[in-house]
Request: fold
Amino acid sequence: MKQSFEKGFFAPLPVLIIGTYDANGKPDAMNAAWGGQAGMTQISVSLAGSHKTTANIRLNKEFTIAFATAEQIAACDYVGVVSGNSVENKLEKCGFTVTKSDKVNAPIIEQLPVAIECRAIDIQEEFGETRVVAEVVGLKADDSVLTDGKVDYGKAGFVTYDTVSKTYRTIGGSIANARSIGRKFE
Ligand SMILES: Cc1cc2nc3c(=O)[nH]c(=O)nc-3n(C[C@H](O)[C@H](O)[C@H](O)COP(=O)(O)O)c2cc1C
Reply:
């Protein structure tokens, strides 16, 4: 028998590290779970209006999203509990260093192996949240996580966010080929 609950969440959620620059070119980063792919070329994220990241995106309309890794999980959590509005050297404190993307006016965090480069196409302030839809204009990936020129999840060490236990979880191995194993019922 299935139990019925009042609230529900997507599972698993991603652990997205959003990188932005402020008006003075100072980099910031924050952790976001409320986000995802929206079709082939777009993503969306839902941000509290008070975050420094949100102000930076309203200003520049450009940002990066790196995918958190098990190796860097403490730093990824830190950027989700402390605001760049109140801690000036937020990135330095957790050991993140950045280079500027060549495609968008946003920082690439050197310690995280994969990041997408995003340009906002719609920003809506609704229900106390800032909803950003963005076009993905590029991707940066370290050589160390590539196999045959493609991002290899087995090497990348990506993690997910578990909203029930409020913990980060690693991603396990492949179990079947997509658009393939189900064909046995055809
Ligand atoms: C696991 C986790 C997930 C989070 N997801 C979101 C989110 O999806 N949207 C959001 O607005 N804040 C989210 N936060 C909170 C922000 O990351 C946090 O308030 C951060 O300090 C904002 O930094 P900033 O002010 O420098 O931009 C999350 C925090 C954690 C730890």
About this structure: The two ends are 29 Å apart (CA to CA). The longest helix spans residues 52-60.
